[in-house]
Amino acid sequence: MMLTGTDRTPYAVGICAVMALAAMILISPDSYLHDLFGRGDSSWFYLCGKAWMCGMDPYVDFSDSKGPLLWLIYGIGYLLAPESYTGVMWLSVLCYTATLYITYRTLRLWLQTHSAWIGTALMFCAYLNPLLHYEVRAEDFCLPWLLLAMYVLARSVWGDTPTPRQWNRYALAAGMAMGATLMIKFSITASVGILALSLLIASRRRALLLAAMMLLGTAMAVLPFVLYFALHGHLSQFIYEYFVLTFITTSHWTDGQLFIFGFISLYMWRTALAVLVVTVAGTLLARGMLTRWRWWPTLAFMAVFFITVQNCTCEYYLSTDAPFLIFGVAALLLRIPRRWIPTTQWGTSTIVALTLALLVYVNYEKYDKIGNWRWQQSEAAAEYHDLADNVQGKSPTMVWLGFFDAQDVPGGALPGCKYFARQDGETQQMLDNAKKAISDRQTQYVVVNGDDTDNCRWVENCGYRLLNAERGRRWLYERMTEQ
To answer: In the chain, what is the greatest distance between 2 CA atoms, to the nearest angstrom?
Structure first.
């Protein structure tokens, strides 16, 4: 495969960086164009990362069902921008630069340069598809690692025969991908594991050595965190909170989160079925371009898909299946007559730009309805800032007895207890932890849903006064000074 101008690493990475920056500024809720409200999981991750950077101990002073690498990423984002999510946006740009570059290199195994860039833009649309994607989350930061494992497998199976040194590098990379995803969201590690196992099968007689290299790669990603928690005396808390308690909470779903046949939730089946049909069709279409292992993309995707949907309560869980669309995109572009594919950089750039413009357009309406563009004067924005602007003091602490919506960001608040907000599948012990922090008056602020009259009355009886009774679905209570 002869390198052309846009194949060279610095140039290709630069193109990917421009694409990622443009998309993150225009699409990501973390960008300068969006207000602070209207988020979901990302606000939890940001608060956990902020708490860690402010000296609180992970899994001891605060906890959630995610790994320390994710909190480290958001903690760095907090250090870059302490009063907004824009620091996280810049880390997202790095994440998607890597994602797009690995996507491009994978497509180049089958496509010419110009077709590969068009395919990369199409895959970007798949990654940020508004049906599966709203905000940058744990799944986004796992994408580069998933694609890295897929790329080294594709290079070893459908590229040139690897040298012994290349086999070792591929195995080390797959191991690091497993370790990194394990420290972000361990359920995604199973998907990476299927790719790593396939690499071992492809290596045949080298499998034992490559398994050792994979273990080394995994250790390189995991051991720094294990040593950190061991040195701080919190290793057992890390293992229990992240692994054991997460398994417990994910088995305590509500009636609205029932699964069909134990796999797909009732409100998810249409989206999941669409992902299944489109991706399987693409992998079957790709059989003609593969020299061997022609059934592998279909079988591997089916395995990854059913791992994903077993605990799929939200559409964005399915976003980690998107890398398998790369086979269908490559096969489709190979079937387009060559005279229809641009042969100049200007022609290719125009098609890529139009594809990204379409991506921005299909995402715009969604954010317009949420009302968190900076230039919108929405009721939701007024409600958010009315509450958040009342949070004052030096590193105030907050507990949420209802919906968590990042009211901590403007005032720099920190978690008021370990289980600072209500989680899906929470145990009674987790709820008791939050209520004890309130009854013992350990937290400075408490946020309660306005229609939750029982908890509102109870919080007032614990010595808190209401600050924003005039407006809002969520009420903010402040600890009163004892006389």
So the answer is: 83
pTM for the structure as a whole = 0.92
pLDDT of 141-187, one tens digit each? 999 999 999 999 999 999 888 999 999 999 999 999 999 999 999 99
Angle formed by the axes of helices 68-80 and 41-53, nearest 10°: 80
> Coil, strand or helix: which one is 213?
helix
Q: CA nearest 278: which of 254, 251, 305?
A: 305
Angle, alpha carbons 86-90-94 (nearest 5°): 160
CA distance 394 to 397: 9
The two structure tokens encoding residue 106: 């994978």
Q: Alpha-carbon distance 459 to 39, whole Å?
A: 25
User: Which residues does residue 464 pair with via DSSP β-bridges, in sequence order?
Assistant: 479
Conformational region of residue 293, where left means phi above 0, alpha means psi within -120 to 50, and beta covers everything else? left
Look up residue 337 and give its amino acid.
Answer: P
List C-alpha distances in Å: 179 to 136, 173, 425: 20, 10, 26
Going by DSSP bridges, is the β-strand pair 464-466/397-400 parallel, antiparallel, or unpaired?
Answer: unpaired
**226: which residues sit within 8 A by CB, 6+ positions away?**
235
Work out the burial of residue 175: count CB atoms within 10 Å of its CB; fewer than 13 is exposed, 13-18 middle, 19 or more buried. buried
Tell me how far apart the alpha carbons of residues 399 and 476 are, in angstroms, rounded to a whole number: 10
Q: How far is CA 97 from CA 21, 101, 386, in A?
A: 8, 6, 37
What is the rounded CA–CA span in Å between residue 127 and residue 143?
9
* 405: Cα separation from own chain's centroid: 18
